[in-house]
């Protein structure tokens, strides 16, 4: 039935509707690669003409400041082939150089930025990643986690720009090297809006299956490193903190053996790679912490073991699966002493891969759960015994 004239009057004209729709589309930032985040769109005229250590004057999608060099795969420097993490192009940031682009973010939401980076010289190199007006983090590129010479990292922040105002995402080389051709190479920059999964009803752990985390490219075969993050409110791995000075690796089921679902955490660098969470507990109540320990399937050299902490309990779990399983269950019971109890995990050993003997690897942790095993914490046998004694005494007095 055709709408009557009065009904029709309420319908907005098609043009307005389309305009509204396209405006919505323009405002909502999609998860994934940012505008020219892989640097494959090169400036008009190409990368040619910019010699070693010579910067480009423009870069599609980005604003540049300082010497920003477009690096092409196969390009050599001092006999060494420069690393391009993905595709044909990447950029290198010279001393104090910066690239930035504006993003429309939702105020108050937490986002994770994923990017690949490689250092070019042996010097201490780091990269300052910031989102204005929100936060800055210096990411240390000193440790080589992978023999490929580059790694993917993720960093999270909470958007603070008013809705409608732009936030500025920037990458800056804070270094002042004598050699201007030293400086980090960056590539594959993506962003993802994070959400904090609801805590399951019978489980005190948030995101214990690690399914929610930073953006990972489908073919990102090295996983994503999560550097130190002491702020549990803005973590690239919602619910969790990386409280050590080294990173842990976020791995996916397409390239690694993951015990459950599509994501898990691979612990690296022994005690220097710790993940933790403060879980809500009831004082004096008994709990069971259960989790899965596994091997990532990345030819990590045995032995693999995880040290697990739950309140005042600590125990190590050696990975010794039965049959051809790639993971095994583990559990610890503990009595909560406060309303929040820390659970934490690190790798007992410093493991490297058997094929290259230098890439860092370690045990995988997944399916972390904490649940109460004593129903009423205040009522324990000694308490019942004293209550019984009191009742008996009262009866005797009354009698
Ligand atoms: C470019 O970088 C220099 C040195 O860090 C800084 O002083 C200057 O303000 C920057 N320019 C812009 C337009 O951001
Ligand atoms: C990942 O996949 C995309 C699209 O299929 C491709 O362009 C890119 O080169 C791949 N990257 C790597 C590191 O294989
Ligand atoms: C780099 O980031 C750190 C904070 O993480 C900050 O203290 C430092 O000033 C930044 N350096 C530059 C050059 O922006
Ligand atoms: C803790 O959970 C594990 C796995 O479900 C179970 O085997 C173990 O018996 C539980 N511990 C206690 C004390 O209930
Ligand atoms: C072990 O592997 C064999 C062959 O791949 C398979 O048939 C068997 O089901 C596996 N066993 C377990 C416990 O996964
Ligand atoms: C739970 O821990 C106990 C004691 O360490 C162990 O005997 C039992 O096999 C574990 N259960 C599971 C399911 O891992
Ligand atoms: C039982 O309660 C008593 C008194 O409240 C306390 O001292 C004791 O530690 C409790 N025992 C257990 C196993 O929780």
From TrEMBL:
<feature type="signal peptide">
    <location>
        <begin position="1"/>
        <end position="27"/>
    </location>
</feature>
<keyword id="KW-0732">Signal</keyword>
<keyword id="KW-0964">Secreted</keyword>
<dbReference type="InterPro" id="IPR052437">
    <property type="entry name" value="Pectin_Meth_Modulator"/>
</dbReference>
<dbReference type="Pfam" id="PF04862">
    <property type="entry name" value="DUF642"/>
</dbReference>
<dbReference type="GO" id="GO:0005886">
    <property type="term" value="C:plasma membrane"/>
</dbReference>
<keyword id="KW-0325">Glycoprotein</keyword>
<feature type="domain" description="DUF642">
    <location>
        <begin position="205"/>
        <end position="370"/>
    </location>
</feature>
<dbReference type="InterPro" id="IPR006946">
    <property type="entry name" value="DGR2-like_dom"/>
</dbReference>
<keyword id="KW-0134">Cell wall</keyword>
<protein>
    <recommendedName>
        <fullName>DUF642 domain-containing protein</fullName>
    </recommendedName>
</protein>
<feature type="domain" description="DUF642">
    <location>
        <begin position="32"/>
        <end position="192"/>
    </location>
</feature>
<dbReference type="InterPro" id="IPR008979">
    <property type="entry name" value="Galactose-bd-like_sf"/>
</dbReference>
